[in-house]
Design a protein that fits this description.
The structure is a homodimer. Chain A is of the alpha+beta class. The first copy, chain A, folds into two domains: 107 residues, SH3 type barrels (Roll), CATH 2.30.30; 281 residues, Fumarylacetoacetate hydrolase, domain 2 (Alpha-Beta Complex). The first copy, chain A, contains eleven helices and 27 strands. In chain A, β20 and β21 form a beta hairpin. The longest helix of chain A is centred in the N-terminal third of the chain and has 15 residues. Chain A is globular. Chains A and B meet through β7, β10, α7 and α8 of A and β7, β10, α7 and α8 of B. Chains A, B: InterPro entries: Fumarylacetoacetase, Fumarylacetoacetase-like_C, Fumarylacetoacetase_C_sf, Fumarylacetoacetase_N, Fumarylacetoacetase_N_sf. Chains A, B: Keywords: Calcium, Hydrolase, Magnesium, Metal-binding, Phenylalanine catabolism, Tyrosine catabolism. Chains A, B: Its cofactor is Mg(2+); Ca(2+).
């Protein structure tokens, strides 16, 4: 697939995250505009609320873009999503007749503040990267028992906390919690000492299901509204002490960051790729009717306080063992109702090589092999002042489908009452 | 504390769940009324939307009772909750001057359909009953390792699924899922064979906190809007195969039932009681400044298809090792934002005796000691057609603070696509 050109000149650069091929959905505000729906195009944002008011885009009897979330658009269903994308392409392509009427509704991205693109209904995090699960399992249970017996059969997931999903750029306080060193007699309470990232993709469910209603993998794929980058901040020491027998809780509850732009399934369509060959045959309900992953290059960048940005890992979303569609099918398999705005974290994405690992836990091998940064400092886990940045894009011929950054800076723990 | 008498005669019976002392909050509809907020009094429901329209109760500039949830009232804060209760007592007590103006807004409970009393923001389930944790631990890990090492230090919890929390009376389809017998080579997919209940109380958070904001146990107690009975339906066979290493997921996601009336903290105030003596000293952040549990008698009733109701267990909420206030404090301790409408399940409530156990898993000891019902049939786990009913009340002198029933009937599994 090649670049689709736009009369918005900055959208035609091979370096922009947001060519006409992309058209991702976000929420923005400016000094004079309240938070509202917008579409990224080059270095501009199309003000969808203004476009709707000018009757240049009409999806529904009532306005759906003058609110700080895309959930209302999700509720209109896949046919409307498709119609919206077609209309946006029509308005923004090089030969668009409406250029003069649309141009006044473009806002420079530099003037805008970005917000959460949707109301997160519920957040579920999966554990579907085989390299990650193998690395973590090897560290905690030894190489012999690295993968739990269910891993090759179930896209393992757990419910996360939606109330602390925040948009890129939100500062993250180091969490407090119960900590217990393996040789300590009893736990203490204080700031986490092993604060980590998890490089993930987030799939956003756009179509709701009823309680009791299962969905096939093909149906699940069509239910997905789009994807974001996701950093599942993790307190490894809190997790180690709390997680048996019911899983991670406060170790993950303090924050999850996402990139601000929802990249639609339609934009990613040319980059579909298959999950790897199955090591054990999957149960029929999880079998994929076609390629359900995407070829998306990912990077993890660290920026120490006052220092330079430095890439510490590169990997690809195509490393996942299970796709978001498989995860969603499994999620609904018991009869669990799904809602528009549900966010599904892919699980940490690591490649087979050491510099392809999506967490510091793996990069520093549990703290035994600290990274040395360009400024000479070492990192096993995060320091206060570190900014962590995830980036990602699918590479077309002469264009990128980019996600924008998913960044967060670590601040000191809040003193406990 | 003695009975507060009302001019609604049925509220003065020692057998009603809903005397003037109680005044629990629900949502109801009738053939002619859309779902709206109501208050139970004897065998009647006070139509709060009508009362507000008649200006007999005014909490805010805008109406808050003409909606099918109490979340708007929660958002007004504890002072308003107190003022509302005082006003309701004023309107309904025996010597109320407004009897003639209020009476037309009473709806017979028999004419009403009850709905979910609130929008569940997020649902968290705990594991805070020591008898239950010991029983389950003994079955799965042996008596030596029954309690996990963290159990006496942490009110262990995990995030549940809010989208399938349903009101009493909602039928529950037996879930499908991945099942694997211990000696089977690989898993299969089909209807759960070990379907269970969990007798719990649910605490409803009424006050929101910001991300990063911890709360003391005393503050947490004041944040609680009220309590309901809660049945955390559980698929034991799905759970056994899926839960390592990240906890229960589809085994719990298909349904959670709650009783329809939110019994306020104020109504339960006379029944406060303390958590048991600590076996290990708690960390300071979890220490209670006073009694935070309640003396609430609980029962589990089974009604087989076409059969009679039969009590199979009796216990009390005062058997919990951790209170809801401690659970909420722990929940927020990492900086996790809490929201009005968050539902916290207590964990299964079992007493020390065999007939005080709050799950069939414990009552039948993993299926090894099936219960024999009055009709001669045996139960290790639930059969299709079984209706399970939880009841609970605090016993005053000549009155009860009751919760109404938390009931659900098991229907056959939905055929999988």
């Amino acid at each position: 697939m090649t670049l689709m050109t736009s009369w918005v000149e900055s959208a035609n650069s091979p370096d922009t995250d947001f060519p006409l091929n992309n058209l991702p959905y976000g929420v923005f505000s400016t000094n004079s505009l309240e938070p509202r729906c917008g579409v990224a195009i080059g270095d501009m944002i199309l003000d969808m609320a203004a476009l709707e008011e000018a009757e240049l885009v009409t999806l529904w009897d009532e306005p759906v873009f003058d609110v700080p979330y895309w959930n209302d658009v999700m509720d209109l269903g896949p046919d409307t999503w498709e119609a919206l994308r077609a209309r946006l392409i029509e308005l923004l392509s090089t030969d668009a007749p409406d250029q003069a009427t649309v141009a006044p509704h473009l806002v420079p991205m530099g003037d805008a503040r970005l917000h959460m693109p949707m109301v997160v209904s519920e957040y579920t995090d999966f554990y579907a990267g085989k390299h990650h699960a193998t690395n973590v399992g090897t560290m905690f249970r030894g190489a012999e028992n690295a993968l739990p017996p269910n891993w090759l059969h179930i896209p393992i997931g757990y419910n996360g906390r939606a109330s602390t999903v925040v948009v890129s750029g939100t500062d993250i306080h180091r969490p407090n919690g119960q900590l217990k060193a393996p040789d300590a007699e009893k736990p203490g309470f204080g700031p986490c000492k092993r604060l980590d990232i998890e490089l993930e993709m987030g799939a956003i469910v756009g179509t709701s299901t009823e309680m009791g209603q299962p969905v096939t993998v093909a149906e699940a794929d069509e239910m997905i509204f789009g994807y974001v980058l996701l950093n599942d901040w993790s307190a490894r020491d809190i997790q180690a002490w709390e997680y048996q027998p019911l899983g991670p809780f406060q170790a993950k509850a303090f924050a999850t960051s996402i990139s601000p732009w929802i990249v639609t399934r339609a934009a990613l369509e040319p980059f579909r790729t298959s999950t790897p060959e199955r090591e054990k045959d999957l149960l029929p309900y999880l079998k994929e009717p076609g390629p359900m992953l995407y070829d998306i290059d990912l990077a993890v960048i660290i920026e120490p306080e006052g220092g330079a940005q430095e890439v510490i890992a590169r990997t690809n979303y195509n490393e996942m063992y299970y796709s978001a569609a498989q995860q969603l099918t499994h999620h609904a398999s018991s009869g669990c109702a799904m809602n528009a705005g549900d966010l599904l974290g892919s699980g940490t994405i690591s490649g087979p090589e050491k510099d392809q690992r999506g967490s510091l836990l793996e990069l520093s091998w549990g703290g035994k092999e600290p990274l040395t940064l360009q400024d000479g400092s070492e990192r096993s886990f995060l320091e206060d002042g570190d900014t962590m940045i995830l980036t990602g894009h699918a590479q077309g011929y002469g264009f990128k489908i980019g996600f924008g950054a998913c960044a967060g800076k670590i601040l000191a723990a809040i003193p406990y009452p």
